[in-house]
Structure formats: structure tokens, C-alpha cells
Amino acid sequence: MVAIIVSLVVVGAGLWLGVGQAGTEMASFGWLLVVLGLVFLAVNLYLRRRGFGMPRRRN
Fold first, then answer.
1. Is residue 59 predicted with pLDDT exceeding 90?
2. According to the 3-state scheme, what is the secondary structure of 5-36?
3. Keywords in UniProt for this one (predicted)?
4. d(CA 34, CA 17)
5. In Å, how far from its chain's centre is CA 18?
6. Which of 8, 30, 38, 46 shows the greatest Cβ crowding within 10 Å of its Cβ?
């Protein structure tokens, strides 16, 4: 669940940079963050749907 939230935060930061810094190098970096965040979000949702998860430690 945390990975999905982090991916959404990366997409949000990318949108903020991409739209807010229009015409600069930071805008390009922002759109790169949007693309990477969406890819990570898709992968995380796919793995979550497939039931893949990190093994939990047993005490």
C-alpha cells in the first residue's frame, strides 16, 4: 500500500513541476517523474492484484 501512495506522490510532484515550471528544464524533469510514477503505479497495482507481497517477519 505504501508503494502505491509513494507512486501517487511522485506523479503529483511531477505534475506540479511539469505544469508550474513550463518552458524550463525542471518541466522536462517533472514530466519524466510523471511517466516514471505512472509506470511504478501500474507495476505496483499489477503485483498487488497478483497477490505478490514482501514476506513478513515472524517473531
1. no
2. HHHHHHHHHHHHHHHHCCCCHHHHHHHHHHHH
3. Membrane, Transmembrane, Transmembrane helix
4. 9
5. 15
6. 30
